[in-house]
Amino acid sequence: MQIDAQSVLSTNQAVTVTAPSTGVYDAAGLGVGVAVTNRIGVAGTVFGSDLGGGGPLASGPQLGAWVTTTFTAGGSATLRVQLQAAIDNGSGSPGTWDTIQQTDDIPVAQLVAGTPGRPLTSFTVPDRYLGQAFPRFYRVNYLVSTGPMTAGAVSAALLTGIDDVSFYPSNY
C-alpha cells in the first residue's frame, strides 16, 4: 500500500459532531483555490479525473479510515463515514459535495482505537458513470447520525497499490 502526503484526508481528527475531513485531495495536484490553466480540449471545461476503476493489473484507489482515539458518547451515538467528491467550480474551488460511497451507521461501541488489522472502513473509490462530470476534489465527511460523541478521533487517506494478493493451495 502507498500513502502520499497529499492523499491524507485526516490525521487524528477529533470527531464529536458531523464534520468534513481537515484535508481535501485535489486530483489536479494544485491545491484548493488554484484554477487549472493548462487545459486540453473544449474551452471553458473544468478539470477533473476518474480515480476509480484501477486496471487489469492494479486495483482502484481505496479510502481507508482508522479510529485513533476510542469514541465515547453519553448515549447510543453512531458514526457514518462518507467519501465525497466535487467538481471544480471553474475557479479552482470545490462545487457541491456529493456522497459517492458511505458506510452504514457504526455504533459507538465498535469505534475502538487500535483494533489490530481492522480499519474502521475500507472501500474502493467507485468509477464515475457516463454523463457525470469528472470530480477534481475528494474528502471524507464524518456524519454523527445519533449523538453527539464526547470523544473520538479518526485518520483517513486515499490509498493506492493495495495488496490484493490472492493465495491459492499449491498443486503438489
Describe the overall structure.
The protein has a single domain, classed as Jelly Rolls (Sandwich), CATH 2.60.120.1110. The mean pLDDT is 81. With 172 residues, the protein is mainly beta. Helices cover 0% and strands 37% of the residues.
Feature tags:
172 residues; four-stranded antiparallel sheet; single chain; mainly beta; six-stranded antiparallel sheet; Jelly Rolls; 37% strand; 0% helix; 10 strands
Note the topology.
Elements: E1 8-14, E2 19-20, E3 25-26, E4 62-73, E5 78-86, E6 98-102, E7 106-107, E8 121-124, E9 137-146, E10 149-159
Antiparallel strand pairs: 1-10, 2-9, 3-9, 4-8, 4-10, 5-6, 5-7, 5-9
- Spans with pLDDT under 50 lasting ≥5 residues? none
CATH class: Mainly Beta
H/E series, N to C? EEEEEEEEEE
| Class per helix and strand makeup | mainly beta
- Give the overall shape, derived from the CA principal axes: globular
Q: Roughly what is the average pLDDT, rounded to an integer?
A: 81
In DSSP terms (H or I, runs of 4 or more residues), the helix count works out at 0
Oligomer: single chain
CATH architecture: Sandwich
Radius of gyration: 18 Å
Terminal CA distance reads 31 Å
User: Major β-sheet, in short?
Assistant: 6 strands, antiparallel
User: How big a fraction of the residues is strand?
Assistant: 35-45%
* CATH fold call: Jelly Rolls
The total strand number stands at 10
Helix content: under 10%
